[in-house]
Amino acid sequence: MQLSSLFLLLSLAILYRIGQDQVLSLENGLALTPPMGWMHWERFRCITNCTEQPNDCLTEDLIKGQADKMVSEGYLDAGYVYLSIDDCWMSKQRDSKGALVADPVRFPNGIKALADYIHSKGLKLGIYEDFGKATCQGYPGSEFYLEQDAKTFAEWGVDLLKLDGCNSDVHDMKDGYEAMGGYLNRTGRPILYLCSWPAYVQKDAALTDYPAFKKTCNQWRNFDDIQDSWDSLYSIIDYYGSNQYNLSAFAGPGSWNDPDELIVGGFGLSQNQEMVQMGMWAMMASPLFMSLDLRNVRPESKALLLNKNLLAINQDPLGKQGERLWKINKAEVWIKPLSKPGASAISILNTDNQGAPRVFHLSPAELGLPKAQKYNMTDVFTNKQYGPYMYSQSIQFTIDPTSMFMAIADPF
Ligand SMILES: *[C@@H]1O[C@H](CO)[C@@H](O)[C@H](O)[C@H]1NC(C)=O
Ligand SMILES: *[C@@H]1O[C@H](CO)[C@@H](O)[C@H](O)[C@H]1NC(C)=O
Ligand SMILES: *[C@@H]1O[C@H](CO)[C@@H](O)[C@H](O)[C@H]1NC(C)=O
Fold this sequence. Notes:
Blueprint (H helix, E strand, L loop, with lengths): L1 H21 L13 E4 L1 H4 L15 H13 L2 H4 L3 E3 L25 H11 L3 E7 L15 H11 L3 E5 L8 H14 L5 E4 L1 H5 L8 H7 L2 E3 L8 H13 L13 E3 L12 H13 L4 E3 L8 H7 L2 H7 L8 E6 L2 E7 L6 E7 L7 E5 L11 E6 L5 E6 L4 E5 L3 E9 L1
Parallel strand pairs: 1-2, 1-8, 2-3, 3-4, 4-5, 5-6, 6-7
Antiparallel strand pairs: 9-10, 10-11, 11-16, 12-15, 13-14, 13-16
Helix pairs in contact: 3-5, 6-7, 11-12, 11-13
The structure holds 2-acetamido-2-deoxy-beta-D-glucopyranose (3 copies).
């Protein structure tokens, strides 16, 4: 009797451990708040003809130039520390020992020298590979070379690996991404691990294993690549709002859903729409990887990227991913609990594109705020203070088309 109850206790303890392990995150000490940096892809793509496009061509000079601006323009001080090179940095062939090599014309000094430069500026270097036979743009992939490539990256001083999933079998991804995670770990160098794996399997529920993503990766892409337009931006926001896999449940210190780069400062968004992206990426505790040309940034875009209220919401140590409370008639309300007791960030998003501002009447209660007698609100974009408002007092919000109101709500 005693023995069997001891056995029962032990099995319960083991079951409990397994239950806990399933929601554990990758423990490499990195990404305790959403990672921040710059990534070349959305803005600079695979531009490799430097005769034709000298200013936009992917070269070590482009990367060094962006690094210089990250420091001199205050982005590093604001927290943007990773400078991440995406696809198309490689030579089309591995060397005779099977090692990856950087394109000798565009990166004549190699990645190690570039990493030294980046580190000398106080920044961290990110790099890109692909789990399959070839990268999305046809450069050598890591299939059959995972361990060797992990060692190469560590030797070069790489601090972040984005591992894409083109040209591979989705059924191999779980084993493959886990294996690469193990090889990265064994290099002994802390390397932030950004996985594209979930984005490739998201349409197949049997392969969509969020506990496994969380345990393997610091940050994972769930959905389509962002393009330079409102439609692309909103399709991503709506995907996270629809939350088909309860995404927010898996976000937290060490592990983040990644809706892709910030296109603030690009060509495709109005100023209001840039505010929506920056606001929603803060709301969703999303990694903040800018993709713009830092040599030439509009002052309004720069102010948004450096907005202290938004960065504080994004980097809040509680690490809660905001959730959409409701979406009705092209309007939606989102809420993100903050670490300050009782405080939340709230957003009211008007996604209608008819040319007139719309009026909404909503109380703190209808905004989903926890019960409190009164609330003060701080507009995150203007820093203006509003309130105090009684919990059930109706407040008028007048919001432009494809635009948002966003505030920090404090119980009073
Ligand atoms: C680069 O662009 C120039 C000008 O358009 C063209 O003449 C040249 O063939 C291109 N080089 C390559 C390698 O595609
Ligand atoms: C490797 O994994 C172990 C166990 O999770 C962890 O304690 C350690 O910090 C990791 N090391 C690196 C370099 O990621
Ligand atoms: C997500 O949450 C809803 C309700 O909270 C639940 O019914 C549903 O099964 C969850 N979906 C997944 C994939 O866990």
